[in-house]
């Protein structure tokens, strides 16, 4: 059962609204471990849909799934200097392997100290590249294309369910190639996979582009990302893909003999998305009534609610509802709400909060007329129709809803995207309730980037791939430049 708690309006407190939607939709709850969450069955069902869709897409691009240990020797992280620097403050460390009872309490056994501390996986580049050094010896072994679904631990100071938690679920792809060009192609291909996932399945419009040097992944040659706008005008980095160059292959001595027999270092990539996408899904589409889910990602596509007053009609109503569910089963999961301990209003409210795309209502009057009432979750539109038209109408309704959610989110992004060249106007925009995305000229200097961040809390998001270069002056220092980038406040 989902919570009876009321939802705080977005306009009143967006952060609390987000937490309330998670609560009333029964997606997750805080765990006894600070910064960690318990993903409840309905939240896990959404993640499983997401995972299954993406897993199929990853395999279709030639990758195979693997699994590597949760624990990484501390010495591995120190082999690539920028990588360890990037993750040092977020690492959880295992120092002992045994407990013992002492004075009625459980304490760490000082005799069980590890010879080398183990890092709880913050990301897997180091341990996977150690394996690549064993797996790769010849050009015939390339490319290596692998992916793993795993949990990650990063000791975050500020946490929020799905968006940023100490432990989270994700997939991480890791590949090795013979050339820079092959690695670059892989990086771009997988970012495109993420874009298709976000836009075609989550109905979340994203902007693909390249990150600034200051925002790139620790140890990468360069990083690309997809950036989405949430309903509060802030950005969400929804997925990243990195060209790691030869930094890790040199650190871990991952070499191959080319066709002439000469040893070469491989070129590597890594890429990943996480349960953060569920947070983005919530913030992109949901409303003050609760969760709104695009049909393609919803665990339940249609819920059928039979309504009877005469107990003698109960059996007939349920059988009719089950028959309709069978007719709709090709669309995905269809549920008949057979519970008799809830009022009709309570049932409607629960399915509305959970974001079920379509609700079908059948009362005694509808049964007598061989009709149904169909309610669409995103716009509340009600339609009375003959049961003979139900399958055709709902098929079209699910397609229309998927499209409408994407178009609504895209229109919102466009309405809250600005082109600003004056720093005073930029600072004022970042103080607005909906700061949005700002396209501005930037000289490429990390110093200007950091000053803007300190003064406005806005960060560089990405340089869109399709962004035309135009002459102008850096937003901060005024230096002539033709480079532009997106600035935004972000999660």
Q: Could you name the ranges where pLDDT drops below 50 across 5 or more consecutive residues?
A: none
Q: In this structure, how is the largest beta sheet organized?
A: 8 strands, mixed
Number of strands: 28
Class of secondary structure makeup:
alpha+beta
Q: Label the CATH architecture of the largest domain.
A: 2-Layer Sandwich
Question: How would you summarize what this structure contains?
Answer:
This protein is α+β, with helices and mostly antiparallel strands. The protein is built from 14 helices and 28 strands. Helix 2 packs across helix 6 (180-201).
Verbal overview:
Strands 3-9-10-16-13-12-11-25 form an eight-stranded mixed beta sheet, with helices on both faces. It has a five-stranded mixed beta sheet with strand order 18-17-19-20-21, sandwiched between helices. The protein is of the alpha+beta class and 491 residues long. The mean pLDDT is 96. Helix 9 links the parallel strand 17 and strand 18. It has three domains: 200 residues, Bira Bifunctional Protein, Domain 2 (BirA Bifunctional Protein, domain 2, 2-Layer Sandwich), CATH 3.30.930.10; 96 residues, Anticodon-binding domain (Rossmann fold, 3-Layer(aba) Sandwich), CATH 3.40.50; 72 residues, Translation Initiation Factor IF3, CATH 3.30.110.30. Helix 2 crosses helix 6.
């Amino acid at each position: 059962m989902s919570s009876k708690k009321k939802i705080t309006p977005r306009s009143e407190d967006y952060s609390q609204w987000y937490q309330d939607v998670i609560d009333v939709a029964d997606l997750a709850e805080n765990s006894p471990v600070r910064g960690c969450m318990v993903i409840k069955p309905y939240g896990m069902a959404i993640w499983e849909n997401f995972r299954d869709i993406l897993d199929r897409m990853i395999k279709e691009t030639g990758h195979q799934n693997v699994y590597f240990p949760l624990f990484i020797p501390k010495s591995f992280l120190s082999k690539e200097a920028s990588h360890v620097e990037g993750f040092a403050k977020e690492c959880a460390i295992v120092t002992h392997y045994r407990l013992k009872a002492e004075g009625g309490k459980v304490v760490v056994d000082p005799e069980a100290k590890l010879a080398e501390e183990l890092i709880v996986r913050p990301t897997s580049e180091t341990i996977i590249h150690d394996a690549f050094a064993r797996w790769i010896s010849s050009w015939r072994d390339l490319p290596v294309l692998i992916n793993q679904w795993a949990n990650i631990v990063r000791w975050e100071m500020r946490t929020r369910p799905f968006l940023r938690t100490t432990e989270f679920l994700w997939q991480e792809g890791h590949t090795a190639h013979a050339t820079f060009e092959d690695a670059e192609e892989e990086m771009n291909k997988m970012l495109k996979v993420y874009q298709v996932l976000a836009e075609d399945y989550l109905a979340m419009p994203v902007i693909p582009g390249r990150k600034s040097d200051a925002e790139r992944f620790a140890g990468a040659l360069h990083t690309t990302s997809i950036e989405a706008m949430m309903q509060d005008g802030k950005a969400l980095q929804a997925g990243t893909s990195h060209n790691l160059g030869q930094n890790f292959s040199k650190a871990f001595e991952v070499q191959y003999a080319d066709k002439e027999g000469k040893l070469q270092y491989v070129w590597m990539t890594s890429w990943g998305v996480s349960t953060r996408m569920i947070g983005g899904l919530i913030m992109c589409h949901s409303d003050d009534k609760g969760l709104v889910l695009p049909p393609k990602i919803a665990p339940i596509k249609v819920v059928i609610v039979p309504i009877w007053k005469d107990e003698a009609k109960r059996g007939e109503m349920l059988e009719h509802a089950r028959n309709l569910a069978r007719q709709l089963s090709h669309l995905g999961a269809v549920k008949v709400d057979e519970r008799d301990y809830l009022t009709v209003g309570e049932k409607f409210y629960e399915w509305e909060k959970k974001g079920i795309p379509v609700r079908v209502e059948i009362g005694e009057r509808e049964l007598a007329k061989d009709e149904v009432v169909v309610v669409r979750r995103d716009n509340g539109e009600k339609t009375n129709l003959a049961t003979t038209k139900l399958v055709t109408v709902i098929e079209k309704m699910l397609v229309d809803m998927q499209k409408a959610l994407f178009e609504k989110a895209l229109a919102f992004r466009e309405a809250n995207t600005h082109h600003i060249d004056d720093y005073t106007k930029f600072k004022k925009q970042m103080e607005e309730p909906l700061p949005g995305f700002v396209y501005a000229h930037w000289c490429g200097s990390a110093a200007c980037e950091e000053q803007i961040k300190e003064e406005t809390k806005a960060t560089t998001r990405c340089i869109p791939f399709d962004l035309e270069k135009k002459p102008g002056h850096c937003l901060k220092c005024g230096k002539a430049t033709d480079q532009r980038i997106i600035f935004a406040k972000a999660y």
